[in-house]
Amino acid sequence: MRPVDMIHEPDVVQETATGYMDLMAFKRTSFRFQSCQRYRVGGVEKAAFETFKQTGVYELAQDDPRLLRQRTQLSGGRVLQRVQLVVPPLSDYLRFAFVYFDHFARAGEDLRILDVSKMDSDGLPNHDFVLLDDEIVIKFRHSSEDGSVIGRELMTNADLARFRGYRDRALELAVPFGEYQERG
């Protein structure tokens, strides 16, 4: 029940001076597949994460930049979809992330959870990726030590049918975030 090994893509271009937000711009649809169980927490989030680990509480302000960005992205009928792969037990990071996942889901993002203890994730990649407007693929590489992003790759000659298939399979297998939360 493990995602398939990463398949080498021959024509990968490393992200250059293009900023992260410019790279992630889309016109109609954005699908994100997240396979890591923890990601690096830095900057202003670091203190909040440490407090969360001690108290279980994380207050997310309505003017949080992530929520503001999401509202902008959802305007004009655009669609945001995300599947988070979960390998129980939940990591501290995912418990922390689920606080803002809840806000994102309530604001209109189609956010789903694929629990590999309940569903077979065979055939899905072992790396994060984003599929924008069904035609642009960005692969993320993460450090196995702390989950920090060590590279984003704009895949200029990606097999789009394969990545659309990953998206479709992940969406089919995953349950909506609210339903996952209710099941406990």
UniProtKB/TrEMBL annotation:
| Pfam families assigned | DUF6879 (PF21806)
The organism's superkingdom is given as Bacteria
Q: Which residues form the DUF6879 domain?
A: 25-181
Q: What is this protein called?
A: DUF6879 domain-containing protein
